[in-house]
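Students often ask why inverse folding is considered easier than folding. One informal answer: many sequences map to the same fold, so there is more than one right answer. In these notes we will look at a single instance of the problem. The structure comes first.
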């Protein structure tokens, strides 16, 4: 395995760990689904899977993770806008 292949492999495994940790923390009630940290962990993990899957020719997995990252970014946008909007009294 060359240096690039090794780097892509490390990225893929790191992405798996990030997404798994995010899910464990969510399941244990340590993170909320709409928290920035949870969503960013999913976006970063998905980005790693996109690189790994794309490099290895696993196009369905790469596409799934593009959608996964898109959902995370969309949710981050919703949460950001909701926190910037003052509550009406």
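Output (designed amino acids):
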């Amino acid at each position: 395995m060359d240096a690039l292949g090794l780097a892509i492999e490390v990225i893929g495994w790191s992405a798996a760990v990030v997404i798994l940790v995010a899910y464990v923390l969510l399941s244990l009630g340590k993170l909320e689904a709409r928290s920035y940290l949870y969503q960013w962990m999913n976006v970063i993990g998905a980005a790693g899977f996109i690189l790994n899957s794309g490099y290895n020719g696993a196009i369905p997995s790469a596409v799934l993770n593009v959608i996964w990252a898109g959902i995370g970014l969309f949710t981050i946008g919703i949460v950001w806008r909701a926190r910037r909007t003052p509550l009406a009294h």
